[in-house]
Amino acid sequence: MKCRHCASTLTLPFLDLGSAPPSNAYLGEAALRAPEVWYPLRLLVCTCCWLVQTEDHAGREALFTQDYAYFSSFSSSWLEHARQYVRAACKRLQLNAASTVVEVAANDGYLLQYMQQAGIPCYGIEPTASTARAARAKGIEVIEQFFGVSLAHELAAQGRQADLIVANNVLAHVPDINDFVAGFAHLLKPHGVATFEFPHLLRMVQGCQFDTAYHEHYSYLSLTAVARICAANGLSVIDVQELPTHGGSLRVWAVRTDAAHYLQAAEESVARVRDVLASEQAAGMLQTDFYRDFQREALRIKRELLTFLLQCQATGQRVGAYGAAAKGNTLLNFAGVRPDLLPWVVDANPAKQGQYLPGSRIPIVDEEHLRRERPDYVLILPWNLKDEVARQLAYIGQWGGRLVVAVPNMEIFS
Description:
Layout: E1 12-20, E2 39-45, E3 52-54, H1 60-63, H2 76-93, E4 101-104, H3 112-117, E5 122-125, H4 129-137, E6 142-143, H5 149-157, E7 162-168, H6 177-187, E8 188-199, H7 201-206, E9 219-220, H8 223-232, E10 235-243, E11 249-256, H9 267-283, H10 294-315, E12 319-322, H11 326-335, E13 345-346, E14 364-365, H12 367-373, E15 377-380, H13 386-392, E16 402-405, E17 411-413
Parallel strand pairs: 4-5, 4-7, 5-6, 7-8, 12-13, 12-15, 13-14, 15-16
Antiparallel strand pairs: 1-2, 2-3, 3-9, 8-11, 10-11, 16-17
Helix pairs in contact: 5-6
């Protein structure tokens, strides 16, 4: 396989999770009587540009389907994150009614609704019909296509260039990362700014977050790699912020390279970029040894989860799960967990309720099911939302129930 950025041959393994179905390919009743498509799930490292990437087996159309089931607005903490971003970006960039904001991968309008409320003209680009429909119900214009240079040229020709382009948790989801990033350079106004948020590969490794690997994540990103990708595709990184979201993320601010001299970055911004690059180098991310032990950590987490579930089964203690999340599907399928060990998972999204997790085929239920069953333990699969879920499910303590997370270590808490 060749690197999807620099085309170098990939030889350094990072993670091998065997095989799994696409993590958001939830199953209806009829699908339970049919076979599932499983793909190898292996990650490799490019030792030239240090981009970590999933082996190519499934095209984007097979993963981001018309009935895509991930809706951002079902997380209250993520909504608050979006609201705060809009407020800060409007202030920093002095956005007003004469500005244009575009969000690529706008999902269900979770962020652009706040731009609308601030009186900032905006539109979204979102290829999945299910989420685009939800965004339109909020009154948001959505262009239902995959983004790249071709679409950017088309929109720019229509006079729809942007003062700000937002790309939250999508940079990792694109198979042709060069075409995607180059599109931003074409769609930005000369003095426009783009922001990219993505889980930080350094935090993924430090936090043993192997379950964030799935087919929809084509790339696993460091600032080192992203700065190189931007530079090769017409953008210059001018700032970076470290965020707590998704177990540790980066927000990168970038401008068109041909306009960078107009936008002199503040000294503190230059220092932040320098410091994050230095921290990655100090951690060893530009050396092969950094990537060699991640497989062992994944196996450890798998063993700890199976030991816990088997002990609960042997002692008659009942376990349910919360959050039919993609990362949970990676964990459960790698560990080989099936309904005999974990009979159900609660999810707040009605689009998922009544369906089954891909691979494990564990049924997805509503929260009333949890209240009726009164399990001894609830395994939180989206561990990045642990605090939010813990507040929401505090009532399980009334019957002695306790919460559990498996990543980065098995932890049982009240």
